[in-house]
């Protein structure tokens, strides 16, 4: 039988990490999704001067303090990329790369997604456009696919997809691409501009070329919240929350940059604490 966690936390910025710490201190069974290499927004900060108790600390120093705190509390980071969250009545199902997870409550702390969707992206989502190459790989046996990879970590997804598809065109939006499989054509120096449906085929238009295949996978580092959790109420590109960090979906809470400005570490951490306490209260009432 699949384990059902008390709280699933998505995101390893200050908000998500603080939520995990608070929930663990309250003896909740948690699972934390994100990356072990903390966000560049933290590590690349030259100096942080308004974090209570740490009058002058570098981003690297703060990241190390976060990591040390997690290790001291034996909190592990699960690097599975969550591509969708579905409300299932008394619990939530979280879809990841080839796996499903269950949790009674959700805390979203995914940060802010830079940029707008490509023209044609939203219109074709689920019918030619996907955000999870490993989830849909089995559908591409004998077919061709285009993958837009935003970082090196997406190469693994492209390789998995290539085990099923006849051909994968991998449009890398970063430098130093690894040597991939024989049936993966690597494209660099192209900037995606638009996605077009042409009959039963999908075409990615870039600043230099056009790439046509049976489907297009967009593998961003962060998935926008409204695509991650269908039905979330958004305001000006952020998740709308109350003072208790609750969203319009019962059992779903949010914290950090994803809830709006100011985009500051201490604000995000404070909201993470509130979100965890609110999720715990929700669980208590639901018993």
UniProtKB/TrEMBL annotation:
Domain FAD/NAD(P)-binding per the UniProt entry, residue ranges: 5-272
Keywords assigned by UniProt, alphabetized: Flavoprotein, Oxidoreductase
Identification of the protein by name: NAD(P)/FAD-dependent oxidoreductase
InterPro entries per UniProt: FAD/NAD-bd_sf, FAD/NAD-binding_dom, Ferredoxin-NADP_redctase_2
Pfam family membership, one: Pyr_redox_2
Lineage: Bacteria, Bacillati, Bacillota, Clostridia, Lachnospirales
Species annotation: Catonella massiliensis
Superkingdom of the source species: Bacteria
């Amino acid at each position: 039988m699949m384990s059902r966690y008390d709280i699933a936390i998505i995101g390893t910025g200050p908000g998500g990490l603080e939520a995990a710490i608070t929930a663990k201190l309250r003896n909740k069974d948690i699972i934390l999704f994100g990356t072990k290499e903390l966000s560049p927004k933290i590590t690349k900060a030259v100096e942080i001067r308004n974090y209570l108790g740490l009058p002058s600390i570098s981003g690297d120093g703060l990241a190390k303090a976060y990591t040390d705190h997690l290790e001291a509390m034996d909190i592990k980071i699960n690097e599975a990329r969550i591509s969708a969250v579905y409300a299932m009545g008394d619990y939530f199902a979280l879809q990841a790369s080839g796996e499903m997870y269950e949790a009674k409550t959700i805390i979203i702390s995914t940060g802010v997604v830079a940029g707008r969707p490509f023209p044609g992206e939203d219109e074709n989502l689920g019918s030619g456009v996907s955000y999870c190459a490993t989830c849909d790989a089995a559908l591409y046996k004998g077919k061709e696919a285009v993958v837009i990879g935003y970082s090196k970590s997406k190469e693994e997804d492209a390789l998995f997809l290539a085990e099923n598809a006849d051909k994968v065109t991998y449009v890398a939006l970063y430098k130093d691409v690894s040597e991939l499989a024989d049936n993966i054509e690597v494209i660099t120096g192209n900037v995606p501009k638009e996605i077009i449906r042409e009959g039963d085929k999908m075409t990615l238009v870039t600043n230099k070329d056009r790439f046509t295949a049976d489907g297009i996978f967009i593998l961003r580092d962060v998935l926008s919240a409204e695509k991650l959790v269908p039905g979330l109420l958004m305001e000006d590109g952020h998740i709308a929350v109350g003072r208790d960090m609750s969203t319009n979906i019962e059992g779903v809470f949010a914290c950090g940059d994803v809830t709006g400005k100011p985009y500051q570490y201490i604000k995000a951490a404070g909201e993470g604490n509130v979100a965890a306490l609110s999720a715990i209260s929700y669980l208590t009432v639901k018993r």
